[in-house]
Amino acid sequence: MTNSLRGRVIAITGGARGIGFATATALTQLGAKVAIGDIDDVKLKESATELDLLSYSKLDVTDTESFEAFLDDVEAKLGPIDVLINNAGIMPTGRIVDEPHAVTRRILDINILGVITGSKLAVQRMLPRGRGHVINIASLAGEIYTPGLATYCASKYAVVGFTDAARVEHRGTGIEFSMVLPSFVNTELTAGTKGIPGLKNAEPETIARAIVALIEKPKPKVRVTKLVGALAASQKFLPRSVGEALTRALHTDKVFLEDVDSAARRDYEERARHS
């Protein structure tokens, strides 16, 4: 795996923290030429310095010019982009009736528009070369529905549909499209929540390993963890009433509503909603 990834140019959005940073770390250790972009320029510089990266840029994924500049910097410093990982995303929680319109728009702009913009800009560069790979970080919330995450679920359902359609659209061009659907992951997105009773949250490094494997051997979709992914996939084959009864039995209908530690989650919510 080291030999196959050595020298590959890989750009990661939302790369300063969480899954993005864990992925950048894993790929750097395997000899890839990694670039990260992030809206938080202070954390961005810290993370880039820690990994000794040559290319890193402040990136607003909702701004086409900002995204274009990020990709320009990557290619100027590292060479043609082999892989773009659209990882940037936010997950404010709460009942939809209490969600400010500005927060709704922000979730959709970052989680959907950012993925579409990045995919288009990357593929425009990849098509003339006849090779390339776009990996979009979706979520198991893109296959199941979770109270307290209505807009987030909508955004991830959109990422799943977009990625599948784009993959088929580019079949035979040399461009690969893949998506990763993580379960609960121990990052700031899940701060102040308890996860699924009886099941351990995934670690960012677990998702990073799955992404590395996808780059090595592309396929349309991977769910992480396999256990939670299998449980989520199985819900499609259950009557709706049974699936929702199971959700209530596991108390997952309360994870992002009644069971949230607001104090522990305050810093993330503030940054996600306003940064």
- The secondary-structure class comes to alpha/beta
Please give the oligomerization state of what you see: single chain
Provide the number of structural domains.
Answer: 1
**For the largest beta sheet, what order do the strands appear in spatially?**
3-2-1-4-5-6-7
Can you give a write-up of this model?
This protein has 275 residues and is α/β, with parallel strands linked by helices. It has one domain: Rossmann fold. 48% of the residues lie in helices and 13% in strands. It is built from 10 helices and 7 strands. Strand 1, helix 2 and strand 2 form a beta-alpha-beta unit. The longest helix has 26 residues. The protein is globular, with a radius of gyration of 18 Å. The termini are far apart. The mean pLDDT is 93.
Write the layout of secondary structure elements.
Blueprint: H1 2-5, E1 9-13, H2 18-29, E2 33-38, H3 41-51, E3 55-58, H4 64-78, E4 83-86, H5 101-126, E5 132-137, H6 150-169, E6 175-182, H7 204-216, E7 221-224, H8 226-234, H9 240-249, H10 262-274
Parallel strand pairs: 1-2, 1-4, 2-3, 4-5, 5-6, 6-7
Describe this structure in a few short sentences.
The chain is α/β, with parallel strands linked by helices and 275 residues long. The protein has a single domain (2-274), classed as NAD(P)-binding Rossmann-like Domain (Rossmann fold), CATH 3.40.50. Helices cover 48% and strands 13% of the residues.
